[in-house]
Amino acid sequence: MPRLSRRGVLGSAVLLGGVSVAGWRVLRRRPQPLEVREALFEGVVYERENRRAPRPMVLHWLSVDLSAQGVRFLATPGNPEAAMPFVGKKTTAFLKEQGCQIAINGDFFMPWYSSTIWDYYPKPGDPVATQGAAASEGVIYNRNDGHLLKTTLWISQENKVQVSIEPPKSIWNAWGGHLLLLDGREENTELSPRVAVGLVGTKLLLLVIDGRQSGYSEGATAKELADLLVERGVSVAIQLDGGGSATMVAQGRGILNSPIDCRIPGRERHVANHLGIFAKKLT
């Protein structure tokens, strides 16, 4: 194979850099996607909704019928003996590894930073710990005895959902987060990608809002997130980790939303734990 001269190598690097910058600009200015509503699995319905006011937002709704045959949930398993019981893992990797049909990112976690595409933490396999309570199929990884995150989403083996500080008598799966106040008292005005889980009767409603992508989806405040859930009749809700962690994936479809990490649209972050959903194929 012929060798490139130093000038040729430099020219190639500049060309690749120009292509990368051009591609990044296209992603930043792309139009919103088509709206869609479809059943993905038995008891699981996905909806993509676009809004232009008060700013561009792309919403990803997932409705899960808790009574549908075959529906069950899984929190990421880890090492209960370790001080940091989880390892950095993409949501797509979790879905593939566990064989789930749907997955979203879970709890807020530490340590993490995201400076550049080369300088970030966690990388695959790096140890991390959730900031809230965490449990997977009865194994407890963090009881949240501290004061980082007090509210927890608890889902029992029988698909009973509870959002509370106090745990149920029997702990099965658990994810920590922030209680979303649905009465208009939310005060956080930061625009960010958001992730929330709420309860509507016998259905669990998952919402991921894309953000930090000018003209496409610029994110939401905590109050706007709560208001959107109220529109759908949610009675109680919890906010999970958002920002660059916000990711929703489906088996056979890949990433449904547009995550952003290191300011790069479509770049998926490695996170500590995830919320997985098993469901039967459509008949």
- What would the average pLDDT be, to the nearest integer? 90
- Structural class comes to alpha+beta
Total strands: 23
Low-confidence stretches: 1-22
Largest sheet: 11 strands, antiparallel
Structural shape: globular
Strand % is: 25-35%
Number of helices: 3
The Rg value, from CA coordinates, equals: 20 Å
Gap from first CA to last CA: 53 Å
Spell the H/E element sequence. HEEEEEHEEEEEEEEEEEEHEEEEEE
Residues in helices, as a percent range: 10-25%
Put the structure in a nutshell.
Helix content is 14%, strand content 35%. The chain has 283 residues and is an alpha+beta fold.
Secondary structure elements and pairings:
Blueprint: H1 6-28, E1 36-41, E2 44-51, E3 57-65, E4 72-75, E5 86-87, H2 91-98, E6 102-105, E7 109-110, E8 113-114, E9 120-121, E10 127-130, E11 134-136, E12 139-142, E13 151-155, E14 161-164, E15 173-179, E16 194-200, E17 203-209, H3 222-231, E18 236-240, E19 248-250, E20 254-255, E21 260-261, E22 264-265, E23 274-278
Describe this structure in words.
By secondary structure, the protein is of the alpha+beta class. 14% of the residues lie in helices and 35% in strands. The chain is built from 3 helices and 23 strands. The protein has helices spanning 6-28, 91-98, 222-231; strands at 36-41, 44-51, 57-65, 72-75, 86-87, 102-105, 109-110, 113-114, 120-121, 127-130, 134-136, 139-142, 151-155, 161-164, 173-179, 194-200, 203-209, 236-240, 248-250, 254-255, 260-261, 264-265, 274-278. The strands form 5 sheets. Strands 1, 2, 3, 11, 12, 13, 14, 15, 16, 17 and 18 form an 11-stranded antiparallel sheet that branches. Strands 4-23-6-19-20 form a 5-stranded antiparallel sheet, covered by helices on one side. The protein has a 3-stranded antiparallel sheet with strand order 5-10-7, with no helix packed on it. The model is unreliable at 1-22 (pLDDT under 50).
